[in-house]
Write a structure and sequence with these properties.
The longest helix is centred in the first third of the chain and has 34 residues, at 2-35. The chain has a seven-stranded mixed β-sheet with strand order 3-2-1-4-5-7-6, with helices on both faces. It starts with a helix and ends with a helix. It is α/β, with parallel strands linked by helices and 259 residues long. The protein has ten helices and seven strands. Helix 3 links the parallel strand 2 (73-79) and strand 3 (95-98). The chain has helices at residues 2-35, 62-69, 85-92, 106-110, 132-135, 142-145, 147-158, 179-189, 238-242, 252-258, and strands at residues 51-56, 73-79, 95-98, 118-123, 162-167, 193-200, 211-218.
């Protein structure tokens, strides 16, 4: 997930942020020029607005860390597993909140953002209910697959500028409810433009032969993932990524813990 979000989302999210910033600044410059012709205004090349991310279902912070690498300001993460706190805060520098998303209030999320910033809300709800393994089981845990509806509730109340969600492709064929369809409908009803893509990870330089469903939604206008960055002959392998790491030896970890 770390590689997925840092490589795929970097340009497309910043493209939406810059588009909004350009429109916002153009309006300000026009107003200043109309009321004071002696003032000369120029368009800056970067957004003056803070771009802040809150990560729901954050876990130990793979998504948050990837978004940080992409240049976004991750301010906090929420998860029901309190054992994730140390790893999350150590790796991201953001604040971890031990919280059940089903009980999370919108006001608390809103307090994480600055007043004038661009708000990004990420929410990768647990994928286990929609996985290939889960499809074989007849009994489903509604408390798990309904979490995407809780994410939708928070989006409706917080009204972030950009929303992102990632899950397994099987969520689109979930039989208990049209979970993905209901989520997309909610976003569109709130004025978002929505993009849903099934991504083959090696196409984006990720050394994992699996597919993921990636959703992006924007209140600024159309939004879409970048086209694939890697061809089959350029696919990254696990050896390419970690092959140069120092081999610690069979008993190194055990020895260090024993001491």
């Amino acid at each position: 997930m770390l590689f997925t979000y840092s490589s795929i989302y970097h340009e497309c999210i910043w493209r939406e942020v810059h588009k909004f910033a350009h429109q916002y600044l153009s309006y300000i410059i026009k107003e200043v020029s109309v009321h004071n012709s002696s003032v000369t205004c120029t368009m800056p090349s970067v957004s003056p607005l803070p771009v802040e991310v809150v990560d729901l279902f954050c876990g130990i912070g793979g998504l948050s860390y990837g978004l940080s690498l992409a240049g976004l300001d991750v301010v906090s993460g929420y998860d029901l597993d309190k054992t994730c706190a140390y790893a999350y805060e150590s790796n991201t520098g953001a604040k971890f909140f031990y919280q059940d998303i089903a009980k999370l209030e919108a006001d608390e999320v809103l307090r994480q953002y600055s007043a004038e910033g661009i708000r990004i809300l990420a929410g990768c709800a647990p994928c286990q209910p929609f996985s290939s393994y889960a499809f074989k089981n007849k009994e489903k845990d509604a408390s798990k697959y309904d979490l995407l509806y809780e994410f939708g509730r928070i989006i409706k109340e917080v009204k972030p500028h950009i929303v992102t969600m990632e899950n397994v492709p099987q969520i689109a064929a979930f039989r208990e409810k049209d979970v993905l369809g209901d989520f997309v409908n909610l976003l569109e009803a709130q004025g978002y433009r929505v993009s849903v893509s099934v991504v083959y990870c090696p196409d984006y330089g990720i050394p994992q032969t699996r597919k993921r469903l990636v959703l992006l939604a924007s209140r600024f206008g159309d939004i879409a993932l970048l086209p694939p960055t890697n061809k089959p002959e350029d696919y990254v392998t696990t050896a390419d990524v970690i092959g140069k790491l120092h081999w610690m030896g069979k008993w190194s970890l055990w020895t260090s813990r024993a001491k």
